[in-house]
Design goal:
The protein is mainly alpha-helical and 276 residues long. The protein is built from eleven helices and no strands.
């Protein structure tokens, strides 16, 4: 028997649930948002549980090997340092996967027409895809945090910083996934985008190390990576210490979101590779 995946097996169930949403204002936004959340939730074993398991494996491997060999901040164990990085990495990767996989699936199966025909504004489409990506990213991140917290003595220095960077980071990757989904015309193009841009940027953003342990050249390269500021600012919310000032990280992350959102909105407004 074929197992359901993120790319199939959900459309019929989604269609049967859309009718009750067609009431009140912002109908298009609410209906598309409902469809996008339901799309990943119907296969949550793959879209939520599997990334949590992956993060646990990273923690067990790197934490076991490097716990007594790497010291990052005073009084903070390497495992404790690693947990927020893994949480944020999971948030970012899954936010990107949500919007990008939804769009490319709709293109290839041909049901994108059912999204383009209704009088949806580009703002509504953008909002629905990005908010759904935030929901999935935060759901996975919370799952990773709840499971990995058993392995480390975590602190919560400032919950506001944690929430701000988690939401903004998920919004940025959801927007980037939207752009990738619009640009890509087949799965291998989307896979190339993820494998050659998203994966290197997340793994080289300080998830597993502090950039102060790197040579000067690689520190400069890390400072050019927006993903570094998302993870560093998020980690600051736990420990109250970071590689750069959290206010500066927030400014970089906020600017990145504005730039990417502007690009995505323009692509949606013009119908680039969406209307044939």
């Amino acid at each position: 028997m074929k197992m359901p995946t993120e790319f199939d097996g959900t459309q019929d169930a989604i269609n049967t649930h859309l009718a009750p949403m067609a009431v009140g204002g912002l109908v298009g936004f609410r209906t598309l948002l409902y469809k996008e959340v339901l799309r990943f939730w119907k296969v949550s074993f793959q879209t939520v549980a599997a990334p949590v398991l992956t993060a646990i494996l990273y923690l067990l491997i790197f934490g076991h090997v490097l716990e007594n060999r790497v010291k990052v901040y005073d009084q903070i164990s390497y495992t404790a340092f690693l947990v927020p990085g893994l949480v944020m990495m999971s948030v970012l990767q899954n936010a990107f996967a949500n919007s990008s996989s939804s769009l490319i699936q709709s293109k290839i199966t041909g049901n994108l027409v059912f999204i383009m025909l209704p009088p949806l504004s580009h703002w509504e489409m953008f909002g629905a895809y990005v908010v759904a990506s935030i929901v999935r990213g935060l759901a996975v991140g919370l799952g990773v945090l709840l499971v990995t917290a058993w392995f480390a003595n975590l602190h919560f220095a400032n919950i506001a910083w944690i929430l701000v960077f988690a939401v903004l980071g998920a919004a940025i990757l959801g927007t980037l996934g939207l752009i990738a989904g619009i640009w890509a015309e087949k799965f291998d193009q989307l896979a190339a985008f993820q494998n050659f841009l998203i994966m290197p940027a997340t793994f080289l953003s300080g998830v597993f190390y502090s950039i102060h342990s790197l040579p000067a050249f690689w520190q400069a390269v890390s400072h050019a990576n927006p993903f570094f500021y998302m993870i560093d600012g998020f980690r600051y919310g736990f420990f109250g210490v970071s590689d750069v000032a959290p206010g500066f990280s927030l400014a970089v992350v906020g600017t990145a979101f504005v730039v990417l959102a502007t690009v995505a909105l323009q692509l949606l407004k013009s119908g680039y590779k969406l209307r044939h």
